[in-house]
Q: What sequence folds into this?
């Protein structure tokens, strides 16, 4: 049994082309029906304003698969702790024995979530873009743009957030990090109107983007909504899209932007909505021309977790890292 | 983050009155609606004849709750490995941070499953019993009888299994362990007819107990079925019971004995079936007289896992045991 700490994982696992590629393969396995992915398990801990999700997927042919536990406890700031934490474990696909624990406190989730955003943009955004709008200036507001840089060149980032301090910190940090101009937008509207590509990264429960702001050629990735009550896009945004894609239709219907579009009657048919894996496996077309409006609804999937955990495990083991614990079993020998 | 190995857990955590009591409290919390318990998550790994289940439950007022990963890979014997393995983790109920990993390879599941059987017998079996029938001579065939000894005195055990070698090993081992007479039964029928209390502990997918064998006063605990295709009791056994109890009706309807009784139309109404927690919390009566036939259908619940994991954690920490790993997080300090 290998154990890796957050510190080690942050040091050695980067958001790079290889990480993007393994997550892309994960989506492809889903579309090609090579993955077994049960619905997300969720435990609500209302008395402490928290929730814990468990995600998993077995990808056929892989020798291990991940089970991920991720928590969001929204009073943690009172204790000086981040709201998100959790870990991934890798279980042998041939024996069922747990083989590794990645004590990442959500870091690998940040990486695989940003990778999914970049993959969506790779297939759905215009080839040439100038300005990227970012709504929300937390960690995903950062990771998403870093990942995007792997698939698109852009000249400018317009960031919008409700806290001026956090926006200013973002501008300062990301100007340095990205090597492009990063500016504060005066409003979400301004960010949307002036951008070729917009990423929403908020925990909003009221829409932050209105359909009337959309313009030809825009692409929007909404990655914030992962629970029934969350919503970043007006339902009409989805209806107005020429191409609407979900990471998985089943999950987005349950807890993504699609959930609200369906419940408000703005979208009635969901069975023909393509999934990200259909883009990556070329079963569905992405953007066809520079005038289309494209929208991608991301809720986060178990195949991404298995893909990134396998990638991280291999990278760490190749470097000879990790703590190895011997855990003898009564019936045989499990190491 | 604390880590405990199977060896340490086996050494220090016993199937005793205290373990029974914490599991009983777990069931009570469920009946009193103080537990949040989502449906079981299941990953089927058909290409390797395996399955992984995830169970969890948050019990209000407890400072941690368990998420348990348990696997059954039925080709493992070819590798000299037990089919079952897995681990439990404890997550803080106030911050969502993982606090302990119990690398028990299924040991704590054995303990809490046997505890549930003993609790069922405590409320459902006659006070005075002579003979206990055990169908199946694997590890639960042993643990169940050891747990039963905490709640009932009995003079004899009749064990039935398909492998004569395994039956003989059981007889030898359990005679020593229990201090009562342990005999091999010639058939499942013989074991049922001659016993006051019968425990089925098999992975059978065809009934091993027929309704026509039942006699007044008998109690049966069926703990083997935990998947749609498994069945130990003829559907009519459930219909013939004067008192039928489930660990949870929702789970038993999906994958316990109840599942078959309902699908065969032998039982039509399930909403009035009491749960084990209603017995332990005195919301429902158990056995009323020595003539009743009682049956308990157990599928295994997340509250049992949280109860036993919290118990084990406390026992281990009290003894100063476990490996402590420091796992710094970027946003705060998680130890």
A:
């Amino acid at each position: 049994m290998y154990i890796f700490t957050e510190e080690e994982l942050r040091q050695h696992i980067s958001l790079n082309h290889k990480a993007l590629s393994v997550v892309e393969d994960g989506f492809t396995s889903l579309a090609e029906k090579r993955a077994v992915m049960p619905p997300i398990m969720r435990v609500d801990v209302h008395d402490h304003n928290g929730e814990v999700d468990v995600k998993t997927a077995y990808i056929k042919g892989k020798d291990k698969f991940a089970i991920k536990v991720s928590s969001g406890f929204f009073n943690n700031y009172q204790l000086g702790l981040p709201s998100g934490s959790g870990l991934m474990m890798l279980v042998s696909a041939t024996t069922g024995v747990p083989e590794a624990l990645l004590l990442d406190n959500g870091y690998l989730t940040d990486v695989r979530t940003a990778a999914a955003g970049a993959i969506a943009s790779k297939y759905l955004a215009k080839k040439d873009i100038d300005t990227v709008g970012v709504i929300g200036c937390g960690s995903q507001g950062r990771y998403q743009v870093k990942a995007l840089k792997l698939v698109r060149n852009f000249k400018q980032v317009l960031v919008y957030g409700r806290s001026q301090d956090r926006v200013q910190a973002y501008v300062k940090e990301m100007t340095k990090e990205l090597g492009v101009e990063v500016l504060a937008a005066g409003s979400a509207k301004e960010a949307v109107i002036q951008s070729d590509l917009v990423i929403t990264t908020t925990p909003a429960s009221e829409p932050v983007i209105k359909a009337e702001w959309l313009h030809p050629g825009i692409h929007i990735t909404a990655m914030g909504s992962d629970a029934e009550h969350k919503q970043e896009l007006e339902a009409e945004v989805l209806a107005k899209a020429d191409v609407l894609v979900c990471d998985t239709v089943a999950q987005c219907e349950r807890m993504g932007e699609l959930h609200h579009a369906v419940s408000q009657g703005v979208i009635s048919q969901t069975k023909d909505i393509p999934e990200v894996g259909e883009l990556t496996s070329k079963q569905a077309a992405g953007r066809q021309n520079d005038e289309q409006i494209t929208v991608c609804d991301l809720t986060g999937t178990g195949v991404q977790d298995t893909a990134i955990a396998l990638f991280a495990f291999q990278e760490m083991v190749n470097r000879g890292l990790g703590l190895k614990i011997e855990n003898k079993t009564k019936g045989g020998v499990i190491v």
Q: What stands out?
A: Chain B has two domains: 2-108+302-324, 124-297. Chain B touches chain A through 63 residues (CB under 8 Å).
